[in-house]
Give the backbone structure.
Amino acid sequence: MILRGIAQVVFQPNPWVGLVFLAALFAGGWQFGVFGLLGAVTATLTAYLLGAARSERVVPGLEGFSGTLIGVGLVLYLDTRWMTALLVIFGAVVGSVLTSALDVLLKPYRLSGLTAPFCVVTTVVVVGGTAFGRVWAEHAGTAPPSTAAPGLGMSWTHLWQGTFNGIGQIFLQNQWYAGLIFLAGLVLAGWRVGLVALASSVVGLLTGWLLGAQAADLGAGLYGYNSVLTGVALFGTFVVATPASAVYALTGAVTAAGFTAGIGELFAVVGGHTLTWPFVLVTWTFLAAVPMFSRIART
Amino acid sequence: MILRGIAQVVFQPNPWVGLVFLAALFAGGWQFGVFGLLGAVTATLTAYLLGAARSERVVPGLEGFSGTLIGVGLVLYLDTRWMTALLVIFGAVVGSVLTSALDVLLKPYRLSGLTAPFCVVTTVVVVGGTAFGRVWAEHAGTAPPSTAAPGLGMSWTHLWQGTFNGIGQIFLQNQWYAGLIFLAGLVLAGWRVGLVALASSVVGLLTGWLLGAQAADLGAGLYGYNSVLTGVALFGTFVVATPASAVYALTGAVTAAGFTAGIGELFAVVGGHTLTWPFVLVTWTFLAAVPMFSRIART
Amino acid sequence: MILRGIAQVVFQPNPWVGLVFLAALFAGGWQFGVFGLLGAVTATLTAYLLGAARSERVVPGLEGFSGTLIGVGLVLYLDTRWMTALLVIFGAVVGSVLTSALDVLLKPYRLSGLTAPFCVVTTVVVVGGTAFGRVWAEHAGTAPPSTAAPGLGMSWTHLWQGTFNGIGQIFLQNQWYAGLIFLAGLVLAGWRVGLVALASSVVGLLTGWLLGAQAADLGAGLYGYNSVLTGVALFGTFVVATPASAVYALTGAVTAAGFTAGIGELFAVVGGHTLTWPFVLVTWTFLAAVPMFSRIART
């Protein structure tokens, strides 16, 4: 159940895929593996104790993936400390309630909450954390690689590392080998999923490059991960894979990459982070619109 | 009807409770009593004139409570002036329309608008007010006690005053004796309501203390009032009171207190205030999630 | 279909009205006409290719109006460049998907998306655009006439130009003669529509003046256009025209004008613009509330 919860971050109900993802998290840093597990266990346990539907929700891991990301995200932005562990546990509990709330609210439209609970909980903690003397470490908030080396000139290294990092950043990892292990996990889930993820990562990177994003950000995969999630969600996962839906998913992946900067600028004002907000908002929009279009069909 | 409207701020349809609350408002300052009444009367009258359901909405005071808070909030942030009175009247009219709109939008999920109309109207007026030469007084916006005396060391005075202020801040009052009168009103409504409110205020204060909030803010009750409203809403009012729902309400109260800082930081950028946004957002989330959990039941 | 799409910005399914509006756009500047057309054609074509309902949506122009505004808005804020044309095309495609998504989400409440897709796409592009080296021109963002000449003293010129500009600003135009041509188009659509638009523009302007807005902003029509759209929407278009609904629409028009400053202050922080957000949010609220009020009826 826990490993399925980790795999469900990319919509896969396969425990072996979750195991590979967990290995990739440990490859990125022991703290990401430990805190990710802590979040996944807490969220799943909360759903179980509150009496969520066992066979439909808890067993397939649908109650664990936001908790996983909350654990990884909070340890990245708040550092490895006991207070962070406490916040991950409480955040995963609230994330679990939020997951259920979104499922109820979105059910009439056949949408799910995606990673929105992770985005909400992490944004609230990171934005509000600066006000609390015992939450904010002095050297926290330095995590994401940003415009340290300004310039639009993209090198070959930026391109290939950015492509792998675009997959690794789904779990907030920016080591290309971690991204490679995540990709291996996706290929294990199915050749098509791996291929769509790889192509979407390149699409996101090229969108950022075309618009004139900083090369360092492209190399860190910051324009790729929302495109990967959107591409996989809109092609084969929630939408039937056809030539028309390939164009639809491509449009979604490009939109998610372009949206990244808008969300980033918005949250930068209050010290928040982009997270997977672009994926969530773009995918909700593109899925909600499907019933109006005779050429596109939901799975 | 008007007194019931004031009592409904804390979900009580009892006119005597409303009378005690009104006395507490006058104890906090004559202008809070007068402008609160102005808002309550305007909102109730608007709903009546537009033809809202009389026995279900107008008579139980459900159309008056946001107006009360709009009156109290605007006079606090904009000062006692004729323009403020005009804005309270117009704000209460719009708040009444917003109350009905939220009721329609949230009905499929069995949620109500809570104090969201107050939050929306007050936020819009306070944020936008700075752009208008005749709205913003020179010495306005100095109202809420903030980090004047920085430091995390909580004294005994902070603790007991903060507990009462945590109840008074529901109506934006920060005199401990006003909070005490509000508590008396809640006890009049029922022993359990008073006890839940008192316990929730302590829970909110301790949450803030644990996370490292400023002692002056704790003493002013700024971490208590959203917890009080959330605790009362989730234990006995909208959710059946059971041991399981006590833990659920406790989680909600802690979340609302922690959320306070996030909302505060967010609105500080544009000159807005926290108001009861944390209560509204947390309670909506926790109530919406109930149908997914077999251990928790709506009333 | 394309001309109807332009006319639908003000809810008119009449191609001749669209032709007059297009002439007004060209009167404001050739680039507004060309980019507006580009957006309208792209959005309508996208909806057609995705298989949107032909007779209900595509033919009456309901798929074109957000695209028109996206074209006009992006060329205003990003300048006349090839990259802007590319962004208009892609923005209109995404705007078309967003239009369908909102229609699905709002259908249970009998609401439509109004100009929200235009607001969302333009806000995202303008806010995020600053992060992209190839999107943001050096001299961009200087477009809207703002507090260049501070002062609350409104002259006769401010009054009459502001009244016409309040209509022209619906299409982001601030030349009074462009506003006059738009008004002519509305009169062509029907005497009552023209009269309601003119009256609403005056109402918005006077609301801003009463609250103490800058006279230069009043003269530029910045307090009028949201009132015009709200007034026309709430009186005769979506709500049956009665004496009661006239007061309701008047309240809405005043609210939209007052709301303008709040939205403006909020977006100014991140470099966004007010656009027609006040109209969208106020009209959604006032339309959603109608079922609760026995005195007001939907068409």
Observations:
- The CA atoms of residues 38 and 130 of chain C lie 23 Å apart.
- The domain at 150-299 of chain C is CATH 1.10.3430.10 (Ammonium transporter fold).
- The radius of gyration of chain C is 18 Å.
